[in-house]
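step: validate -> pass
step: tokenize input -> pass
step: predict -> running
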Amino acid sequence: MSRLHRTLLAPLVADIVAGALAEGDRLPTEIELARRFDVSRGVAREGLRSLEERGLVTVKHGSGATVRPATDWDMLNPEVIAAVLASDRGPKLLGDYLECRRLLEIEAAGLAAERATRAQLVTLSEALERMAAAAAQPAAGPSAEDRFHEADIAFHRAVIHATGNHALGRMTEPVHRALAAARRPLARPDLRLERSLPEHQRILAAIADGDADGARAAMRDHLLTVERYLSEYAAEAAPDGELRA
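step: predict -> pass
step: emit ->
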């Protein structure tokens, strides 16, 4: 995507997500967009096409682009994710992602306990070691944060891989990518040594022991912890202190 394309796309996505352009509203024409963003009409046309690909608008020849309902938006697209997280819809989106993880990853942990190979257990152990090394760094700067989250996602991907179910891997990958983009609101660096690392250690131990029920329980407990973080984040984000729906 060209830089000119992005300069047009990002503010339009933000306007739609924030409600400045509501469902059913008609967007400016290609000529109007080209003038507003100081780009060519071709760039404006590509911007509208990108919005359509993300489910944000419907483009019809002769009648222009119209905003679609939020239920049609591609909530796994990075630009849409960024805009939603910057709005009051953010906590709801994060809650949806975590619900997806509960539906998929708890059972995946049980399957991994039944099927994981020695090499897959090594991969899980290495990801956990990287998490521990990043969490132990004092001050936890941006570099350490990035390494921790990368290792965390690698651990959960390794759990999915250990199920041997390739279709499941394809299903969960978009969710993991989305959570990578949305990770900051759920980060709790001060609690990693106390909660996150021990929870991941219990998941790994159960999988290594071939304890399917224990692995499911450990994964369930870990995801409940993350959901508590989300509740705290949502309460802080809401002006009235209540969880946004």
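step: describe -> The first strand starts at residue 57 and ends at 60.
step: cleanup -> pass
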